[in-house]
């Protein structure tokens, strides 16, 4: 899934590059309005309307980085990875120092196992002191480290993301996953507790709770997590996995 941090980024309306004719002031403004509209539709998961608005934005001004970034996220949601990559690279060519572009493209590159370039872009984003979403870039860099098998470095970066934003739910869940994978279920429980205190309960977090409490030898707590999962998310893949785990335990 693409990052959505750029949805709040007014800083995407900057510099230009490329050979297309310079858009007029009116064309640029029309492109910005349509790009913002397309992003709004993306937030609502209305991909058809987002497509129309972002197409209009690029027709008005094909050198608007925000429009390319919006289109890239749309293409990711549509499963069109190559097209997403093309639009991310267009956005980067237009605004090479934009940390929102660097974060989004760096994350996709890492997920495509193009680790060196991906980490370079994420590191640039993290190094920007004015970047308001450094916590997101740190998390994505940490997840890239996980894919590379660099678990210690991954933990450092995700913990840094939580130092910047202690209420960052995605980072709390990823730390819970990482500590469980590293055989530290007590820490897994602590991170899941922090996640629950934010009011965030997902099928995945409940399944991880069941696994951690089972490993800790706490059958009452494990059953509680299992019952919540079955009751709240009965049709989820996590619930199906829970059934497989319980059957495997006899």
Q: Predict the CATH topology of the largest domain.
A: Serine Threonine Protein Phosphatase 5, Tetratricopeptide repeat
Query: What is the C-level CATH assignment of the largest domain?
Result: Mainly Alpha
Task: Quickly count the domains.
Answer: 3
Order of helices and strands: HHHHHHHHHHHHH
Structural class: mainly alpha
CATH architecture of the largest domain: Alpha Horseshoe
- In whole angstroms, how far apart are the ends? 36 Å
**Main pleated-sheet profile:** none
- Helical percent range? over 70%
Could you tell me the mean pLDDT? 91
Return residue spans where pLDDT drops below 50 for at least 5 consecutive residues.
4-19
Notes on the protein architecture:
- The protein is mainly α.
- The protein has three domains: 1-93, Tetratricopeptide repeat domain (Serine Threonine Protein Phosphatase 5, Tetratricopeptide repeat, Alpha Horseshoe); 112-165; 167-250, Alpha Horseshoe (Serine Threonine Protein Phosphatase 5, Tetratricopeptide repeat), CATH 1.25.40.10.
- It contains 13 helices and no strands.
- The chain has helices at residues 25-43, 47-60, 65-77, 81-94, 99-111, 115-127, 134-147, 151-164, 169-181, 185-197, 203-215, 219-232, 237-248.
- Helix 1 packs antiparallel against helix 2 (47-60).
- It is elongated, with a radius of gyration of 21 Å.
- Residues 4-19 have low confidence and may be disordered.
